[in-house]
Design a protein that fits this description.
Elements (H helix, E strand, L loop, with lengths): L1 H14 L1 H14 L1 H15 L5 H25 L7 H5 L16 H16 L3 H20 L5 H11 L7 H8 L3
Helix pairs in contact: 1-2, 2-7, 3-6, 3-7, 4-6, 6-7, 6-8
Keywords: Membrane, Transmembrane, Transmembrane helix
Organism: Candidatus Minimicrobia naudis
Protein name: Phosphatase PAP2 family protein
Length: 177
């Protein structure tokens, strides 16, 4: 919140408001598309055919678990009822759902895809690319004033709850259970 109120006017004053807003929107919203495309590619092309059912089941359960956990946590704990742009009385710099904002759905979704690429497709290179884009998306969402840092950190951490579906399965497979 302090970052937005202190630095945002200075950023727009010196770089040209419209250009910076377009770049922030592109980062905050537009980078979701390449993360999704990399995830689809990795899960379709890099997962061996004999493992697809198991991997796809794990990805589905991990995503659903993270989503349900996010909705439960979001209904129990909301640090702010208003988003930063509403508090500051300015327009939003990126798209958003009409809800308080904790946890960030963009952070949750892109991190879940990143984890699916890492654990499901077992491609650490593509996962690192997705992780960098996910972090950029999170920073963009904060700069666009649609989320606080706590919102995006919450989304990232809650997405990690889905890891429970990847690890136990690999341990069972390792021990032939």
């Amino acid at each position: 919140m302090i970052f937005a109120s202190v630095y945002w006017p200075a950023l727009t004053r010196y770089t040209g408001s419209m250009d910076l807003q377009w770049i922030v929107k592109l980062i905050a919203d537009g980078l979701v598309v390449p993360v999704v495309l990399i995830g689809v590619y990795a899960l379709i092309k890099l997962v061996p055919n004999k493992e697809k059912y198991q991997v796809y089941s794990q990805v589905l359960m991990a995503g659903l678990t993270a989503y349900v956990a996010a909705k439960i946590i979001g209904s129990i704990y909301q640090p702010d009822q208003m988003r930063p742009f509403e508090i500051l009385g300015v327009s939003a710099g990126a798209s958003f759902f009409n809800n308080p904002g904790f946890p960030s759905d963009h952070a949750l979704f892109t991190m879940a895809i990143t984890l699916a690429v890492f654990f499901g497709a077992k491609s650490w290179r593509l996962a690192v690319i997705c992780l960098v884009m996910t972090i950029l998306i999170c920073v963009g969402r904060v700069i666009a004033l649609v989320h606080t840092p706590l919102d995006v950190i919450g989304g990232l951490l809650i997405a990690c709850v889905g890891i429970i579906w990847y690890k136990p399965m690999s341990l069972l497979k390792k021990h032939n259970i």
